[in-house]
Amino acid sequence: MTIKLKKQVIDILKILKQKKSECIASDLAIELGIDYIVLMSAVNNLKDYDLGNFKEVEINHISLNHEGLNYLEAGFPERQLLKILLEENTKEINLEDLIKRSKLDKKIFYIAINNMKKNRWVAQSKASGEGKIFLLAEDFPETNVEIFLKKFDKDKILDFSTLTKDEITQFDILNKRKLINKEKRTQRKIFLTDKGKKVKISEIKELSLVSKITSEMLSSGTWKNIDLKPFDVSKPGPLLKAGKIHPVINFINEIREIFISLGFTEIRGPIVESAFYNFDALFQPQDHPAREMHDTFYLNNPKVAKLPEKDRVLAIKNIHENGGNSGSLGWGYQWDENIAKKTLLRTHTTATTIRRLAQYYRTNEVPPIKVFSIDRVFRNEKLDKSHLAEFTQIEGIVIGDRVNLCDLIGIITEFYKKMGFEKIITRPGFFPYTEPSMEISVYYDKIGEWLEMGGSGIFRPEVTYPWGIENPTRVLAWGLGLERLAMLRFGRTDIRDLYINPIKWLREESY
Ligand code: PHE
Questions:
Q1: Using one digit for the tens of pLDDT, what is the confidence trace for 329-369?
Q2: N or C: at which end does the chain have fewer Cβ atoms within 10 angstroms?
Q3: Omega before 472 within 30 of 0, i.e. cis
Q4: Which atom of ligand 1 is nearest the CA belonging to 395?
Q5: Closest approach atom of ligand 1 to CA 349
Q6: Is the pTM of this model over 0.90?
Q7: Substitution site in 284, 288, 348, 458 for ligand 1 pocket (most atoms within 8 Å of beta carbon)
Q8: pLDDT tens, position by position, 239-271
Q9: Cα-to-centroid distance, 460 and ligand 1 (Å)
Q10: Which atom of ligand 1 is nearest to the CA of 393?
């Protein structure tokens, strides 16, 4: 088989032949001024013809840590103590005095004393009651470990495998004294096979790969002799920066389909809502804190909303004042129609489901009715990474005879299962318009946490009676957050990203 290699690969082969021994890949790449990846891909080409190969070896880099570097400069603490003794020109000293003079940390001081004893520089006596140190020797040549320490120079990194047996003994001492940093690295070493060593450069043909066949190649017939560059069909293609549907819209459509598959119909309602539908019809008293300006965006234009038919307004008034025909005592205050006429940006899509109850009343429908809405709501919130002032709710109601809490849990659980959540928990909650009320959380595997998703419950008689829905016909209701779910789906940690639209994210998101 004739060997065909690209010019660059032939050049690298030539250099490897000159080197005669193994080369460290990263060093060679630097020496040749080429990219490491280019070098390794050349080595892989050589491997295809069994000319060269590489092996991976683990190397242990060792260097001095901060303390070690200090000793390199100032000497080991035992040497520092010795210096003090020699400077004083004294042959004995009290331990306490020496400790004060040395300014060493107590722990290090005693290590130093121990090493002085080991080196047979000093002896210690407690005979006189206080610890005393006596100089033993006359001269104090550099110890082996001191000599070894100097091998590190300034900041030098050594390869453990290059140490001699004696050096390893000294290394162990430094290591035990915790003066060493160790780091494991894998290093690639490139070598030529026997075949690679023997092959003559003149036997190798230069390969020029062609990635495109031109019409000239076809008409002249030269295409028969060229080498075509193979395609790697597993490589991703270039990023298409085409227009596409916004990920959140697609996500909403996915949710839409789930409810439609469960037999629900979509409803929509106005964004500009009356306090009547947003609060009053939900049995929220007119002095309820959620109605305050700091939670709700009220509007100046239009300033007043049209209320529904007079008798229904009266029904709601009665509910608030005395419970009407619902069996409730109501709130017992004087209900003000003008407050109900205020206009606002709806704070929840529950307003829209109440409009659906009104329609049910007017058209004498028969249950069951199953509707949902996925729509924008507005609250006067400070924006941050987990709060928006304008967000989306997944809302729904089921009007049915004798439907109960188990049905509600079933629907919500089914929804989240279809969204990919296995664990759903419902806990008692409170809303002025439901009884019982439930809060819903889902378990998010990736972070191992329960995340709160929204509220639900069975509408109170005070909410349903004005619209002719009386026990045992009941209304199951829920309102769930969409953006939280979307953040999990798209792996965003800042909720604002969903609408600020970082272009990089939009491009990368697969739909
Ligand atoms: N409207 C409630 C909210 O915005 C959610 C909810 C809807 C609760 C329906 C109970 C029933 O948080």
A1: 999 999 999 999 999 999 999 999 999 999 999 999 999 99
A2: N
A3: yes
A4: 7
A5: 1
A6: no
A7: 348
A8: 788 888 999 999 999 999 999 999 999 999 999
A9: 13
A10: 4
- In order, the DSSP letters of 31-77 are HHT--HHHHHHHHHHHHHTTSEEEEEEEEEEEEE-HHHHHHHHH--H
Q: How far is the CA of 343 from the centre of ligand 1 (A)?
A: 20
479 CA to centre of ligand 1 in angstroms: 4
d(CA 190, CA 206): 22
The sign of the CA dihedral 66, 71, 74, 77 is: positive
Distance 458 CA to ligand 1 centre (A): 11
- Provide the pLDDT confidence category of residue 4 given band limits of 50, 70 and 90: confident
User: 478 C-alpha to center of ligand 1: Å?
Assistant: 6
**pLDDT > 70: percent of the chain:** 98
Name the helix (H) or strand (E) containing 383.
none
What atom of ligand 1 comes closest to residue 397's alpha carbon? 9
Residues with CB under 6 A from ligand 1: 348, 350, 431, 434, 454-457, 477-479
Least confident residue range of 91-95, 105-109, 195-199, 312-316: 91-95
| pLDDT of 94 over the 90 cut | no
Q: How far is the CA of 336 from the centre of ligand 1 (A)?
A: 24
**Model confidence pLDDT, tens digit, residues 439-475:** 999 998 888 889 999 999 999 999 999 999 999 999 9
CA 492 to ligand 1 centroid distance, Å: 25
From the CA of 456, give the closest atom in ligand 1: 10
Residue 216 CA to residue 172 CA, distance in Å, equals 71
Which tokens go with 342?
């205020």
pLDDT of the residue at 410: 96
Confidence check: pLDDT of 54 > 70: yes
CA 478 to ligand 1: nearest atom: 9
Backbone angles phi, psi at 268, to 5 degrees: -135, 155
Question: How would you class 351 by CB atoms within 10 Å of its CB: exposed for 0-12, middle for 13-18, buried for 19 or more?
Answer: buried
Q: Cα separations (Å) of 118 from 10, 102, 145, 179, 254? A: 60, 19, 12, 19, 77
Q: Which helix (H) or strand (E) holds 507?
A: helix 503-508
